[in-house]
Amino acid sequence: MTDTPAAANTEAVFFDLDGTLIDTAPDMGGALNTVLRNHNRSTVAEATYRPQVSHGSIALLKLGFPELQSADDFQQLRLEFLAAYENDIARDSHLFSGMEAVLHTLEKQAIPWGIITNKPEHLTHKLLKLMTLFDRCCSIVSADTTTHAKPHPAPMLLACKRAGVTPENCLYIGDAKRDIDAGLAVGMTTLVANWGYICPQNDDPDRWNASAIVQHPQSILDHLTSTPLNH
User: Fold this and answer.
1) Which of 49-63, 107-121, 212-226 has the lowest mean pLDDT?
2) In the CATH hierarchy, which fold is given to the domain comprising 12-23+93-223?
3) I need a surface site. Which of 84, 195, 203, 226 has the fewest CB within 10 A?
4) Is the pLDDT of residue 3 over 90?
5) Is residue 228 predicted with pLDDT exceeding 70?
6) Domain residues of the chain, as ranges?
7) What is the mean pLDDT of the chain?
8) Candidates 3, 16, 27, 135; catalytic one
């Protein structure tokens, strides 16, 4: 697929960030364990925190502070977590294996690619700049770029508007149900990134109504065919 021109109707490819484009689990987990150590709590192993990374800071903090219940209970801890994470945001994070080849192929075929994430904007921008990806994106929309985050369609529509593309002719890849729901809400073709932070106990990608579940980043290119997207 690498050397085959993509369909003319494929106007752009958009990615979720954490668990789809970039493996941020090492640094997210590191921030969690920093907070836990600061509060004399036992640290959490990667196998435990990794499936929760896509669900954000509160989900991670619940692993170490299970007695807390409401979002208000977590507010101070969340601020501590975000500060620790920002401090080491790109220490060990990296593109998933095979993803750079996918990005290179898209750029070679002049297909714009961008990011639609529920990560806060200042963290999204800092991470992408440190990883020299920021200037390669056609558009970047984060959790607080619009008044609503995914699964609301607003981030998807803004990303397309900024890139000058039509949602129905775009591909969106994510590793959470809210990613697929948001993409479907605006008529995008959607793929589940099965290499991402999917929790077998709580997530069932087969029920998310995505166009396909892909096992490796290279498989994304197989969905840039001569057949119109969404067909």
Assistant:
1) 212-226
2) Rossmann fold (3.40.50)
3) 226
4) no
5) no
6) 12-23+93-223, 25-87
7) 92
8) 16
215 vs 200 pLDDT, higher one: 215
Are the C-beta atoms of 116 and 155 separated by less than 8 Å?
A: yes
Label each residue of the chain as H, E or C.
CCCCCCCCCCCEEEECCECCCEECHHHHHHHHHHHHHHCCCCCCCHHHHHHHHHHHHHHHHHHHCCCCCCHHHHHHHHHHHHHHHHHCCCCCCEECCCHHHHHHHHHHCCCCEEEECCCCHHHHHHHHHHCCCHHHCCCEECCCCCCCCCCCCHHHHHHHHHHCCCHHHEEEEECCHHHHHHHHHCCCEEEEECCCCCCCCCCCHHHCCCCEEECCHHHHHHHCCCCCCCC
For this structure, is 135 an active site residue?
Answer: no
Residue 92: name the closest of 34, 14, 31, 37 by CA. 31
Q: Give tens-digit pLDDT for 178-210.
A: 999 999 999 999 999 999 999 888 899 999 999
Query: What is the arithmetic mean of pLDDT over 41-63?
Result: 93
8 A C-beta contact, residue 195 and residue 21: no
